[in-house]
Amino acid sequence: MTKNEIHTFHIPVMGIGYTIDSPVKVARYGISSVVSIIEDHVIERLREYYTQFIGQTYVEIKTNEVDYRARRITSYLNILDTIVSRQFDEIKSQSFSGDSDIVKYFEMLPDSSPLKALYVEMDALDGEDKFKLQEVLRTRMAKGCIDVNIMTKLDRVNYDAKNEAMAPEFNDAMAALRGFANSTVEASVIFSAGMNPRLYTYCENFRDFYPSNNMRKKIVIKVSDYRSALVQGKIFAKKGLWVSEFRIESGLNCGGHAFATDGLLMGPILEQFKNNRESLYVELIDIYKKALSEKGEELNDFIPSIKISVQGGVGTNQEQELLLDYYNVDSVGWGSPFLLVPEATDVDQETLSLLEHAKKEDYYLSNASPLGVPFNNVRNTSSDKQRKKRIEDGKSGSPCYLKFLSFNTEFTEKPICTASLKYQGLKIAQLQGSDLKEEDKKSEIDRIQELDCLCSGLGVSTLLVKKEKPMYKLSAVTICPGPNLAYFSGVFTLKEMVGHIYGRNNLLNDLPRPHVFINELNIYVDYLKNEINKCKLNFTAKQITYFNTFKNNLCLGIDYYAGLKVSLDSKLTDWLEAAKLELNNIQLA
Q1: What is the rounded average pLDDT for all residues in the chain?
Q2: What are phi and psi of 502, to 5 degrees?
Q3: Which domain holds residue 399?
Q4: Dist. CA 528–CA 534, nearest whole Å
Q5: How far apart are CA 547 and CA 557, in angstroms?
Q6: pLDDT of residue 3
Q7: Is residue 281 part of a domain?
């Protein structure tokens, strides 16, 4: 997201399909959101839907056509851009009366916004003065960004009709980047899930990332700590590419895949960014200018800036204001709560009802992802029921049509997905024929059978919402909210959720909710305990070092919170002392 001055929050990417058309829902109100562009089959279905929606003739981009994946993504983003522009032009022309969208636009602004203050002033006037201020307000309106997300690990090699590996630029992530870069949208690409040097280098091929093209496309890196930001910022700067934003995400108190840090907590991480923000800019800008000069590029009047944003587990206006005011972040991501807002995200009715009534214990960190990374999950989804039914029927695993997570070559030369019928059949047969103890054999089989199809499950909901037939008749839904959603119960309007973010109303349920920093620390303590228990007291020297590092970082985080001269919670001091004692009692071996 490129920060605009309209709202101080953004809607991060969620799953494959949950925010895939969120810009059509919220961008006209100045709210930025992030579209996943990794799954081109769903994108093509949505492209068909929205092409007809705007009255144009849909022409399918077929999978046997040259560069079909990138072309599908480009065309879809262009359609979103067209729709949002039309919506925004329409809203700007509306009358400031009743429940019109232009009234909704300004009423949803934060009360601290100068634009909101001008709107309130206009509303109190009459006659010519009122009309003049209305025209000023129209000129200061801005639409939200159509940002995109590429999970860098999802860079599968693709094969041609002769079953031969295609050139790297046709890999999934590379093609997705090309699709975005060739589109008309002026927005950001958010790279998540770690470094992909080849993908980063590929950015050099597209002029919209350079100041000579006014940097129409911007680069955002999702990071877990300051060191990662500095390292990746330098990688891009040396290529003559500027990272416009570092997006800090909690390692575990988030939705989707959970990339645990070594016990590094959000508060200390944010403090480091706050204290080093200026030096980070100075270090990167010198490298960047030198690289641009070597490319024959000049900054001229273009002045690049660095934004800092944060997301993961934020749930109250007080937390939002702390992040904005004390840590000086530019935007706060609110993800999972928006799954309960049909005006913002695409969640099918069955899953929406599940989330509306889910209990705290229903949200858990699972091993469902074929990537081998912990995955935030909720119990009793239609996908979970389907997975269990297949196991009961002796058909463990999923039919693998889309193959985006096909990376395993344990049994095959060509990579396959560990959640697939093929892999699980081969792996379970191998385990059953092994000489493992029966309890260990069962444990391993259970672990394999927990793996689930995410390609279909995370994308199908948007089709169900639009009453479109799911691909390959696969209608089971997987959803990956963060644990913070346990504190929200109900279905809300967009205006209600935005009002909650800005402190105008309260949507939290009656469940006692710790501060976001404390919640994250709780989750990290539980994670450490579980990881230690997995070792069954058979610790290697490497594991002992890792666990001690993890524990020490948590203790440092607790000490940081204890010394923080900002009021977080009236019970913070007592809780921190109890948490410190609990950490000290963890036995490593």
Answers
A1: 92
A2: -95, 10
A3: 382-478
A4: 10
A5: 15
A6: 37
A7: yes
- Which pLDDT tens digit goes with each residue over 282-294? 999 999 999 999 9
331 shares a domain with 386: no
pLDDT value for 588: 42
Distances, alpha carbon 352 to alpha carbons 107, 336, 345, 387, 483, in Å: 27, 12, 11, 20, 16
- pLDDT above 50 (res 28): yes
Q: Check pLDDT > 90 for residue 178.
A: yes
Does some domain include residue 110? no
Length of the chain: 589
Instruction: Read off the DSSP letter of residue 259.
Output: -
If asked whether residues 313 and 408 sit together in one domain, one would say no
- What is the reported pLDDT for 576? 60
Distances (CA, A) of 116 to 111, 502, 504: 6, 12, 14
Structure tokens at 312: 């993961």
Q: Which amino acid is at 13?
A: V
> Does residue 312 sit in the same domain as residue 446?
no
- Residue 217 and residue 159 in one domain: yes
From 431, 457, 478, the end of a domain falls on: 478
Pair 540, 416 in one domain: no
501's enclosing H/E stretch is: helix 494-501
| pLDDT in the model for residue 420 | 95
Residue 493 vs residues 32, 135, 298, 500, 572: alpha-carbon distances, Å: 17, 28, 47, 11, 33
Place of tokens 């490298």: 287
pLDDT digits 0-9 by tens, 444-475: 999 999 999 999 999 999 999 999 999 888 89
User: Does residue 207 form part of some domain?
Assistant: yes
Of the residues 303, 338, 373, the one at which a domain ends: 338
In a domain, 343, yes or no: no
Helix (H) or strand (E) holding 10: strand 9-10
The pTM assigned to this predicted structure is: 0.94
Domain count, the chain: 3
Query: Bridge partners of 268?
Result: none
At 289, which CATH number? Answer: 3.20.20
317 and 406 belong to one structural domain: no
Answer with the residue of higher pLDDT: 335 or 537: 335
Listed in order, strand segments (DSSP E) in 158-267 are 188-192, 218-223, 243-249
Same domain, 460 and 572: no
pLDDT in tens, 514-533: 889 989 998 999 999 999 98
Q: Is 471 in the same domain as 519?
A: no
SS3 state of residue 180: helix
- When comparing pLDDT for 536 and 283, which is higher? 283
